[in-house]
Design goal:
This protein is α/β, with parallel strands linked by helices. It contains 7 helices and 8 strands, in the order αβαβαβαββαβαβαβ.
Amino acid sequence: MRMRSKPWAKPELEACPFFLRHPEQQKGRWHEWFPEEGAIHLELGCGKGYFIAGLAPLHPELHYIGIDLKDVILAPAKRVIEAAFDGKPIHNVALTGHDIERLREIMGEADQVERIYINFCNPWPKPRHWKRRLTYPTRLEDYRMLLAPQGEIWFKTDDGPLYRDTLRYFEEAGYEVYWTTEDLHADPCSDEITVMTEHERMFSEQGIRIKAAKARVLPRKE
């Protein structure tokens, strides 16, 4: 879908203290970017920022990095996050623009991440495009490099085929799926995974059930 131009987006992001224009310069040093020590939680495809906005103010002990591709997406995310903090200083959020397919360009093994969130990524339904999915086994191998021991991936989607394929991808890539649901908002689970993104709210209002899974990385077999 073509994004409508937002002339205000670039200058507003450039003035934002928690936006990084050149994330490749931070590779291997993401923990140093935050003023205090804490585990990093990474959202791949943060969209308009509602998920991070729902978590970061409640968890000042954690550091949240949101990655998406374009300023026209990240600038609204910046505003949503600022509104969630209600005028309070924002020290535990970083937003940056980059192609997630090239995640290795901006993050390395030294940037250990406790948890990765993948919310409502493109399902790429045609088989010839499956390798582009953010949960495809080759991508999961890239994420393994970043995840701390016992690090986790939390995944949400409205797409049934992607959900079922992703459960298989996790197993193929050496992850343990320890929790699943095919109807998230009818499930008694009440932790952070229930924080809604903008797409999630739209799908839920249409009566579409949200599928979700949690997986942890397993040690490589010798």
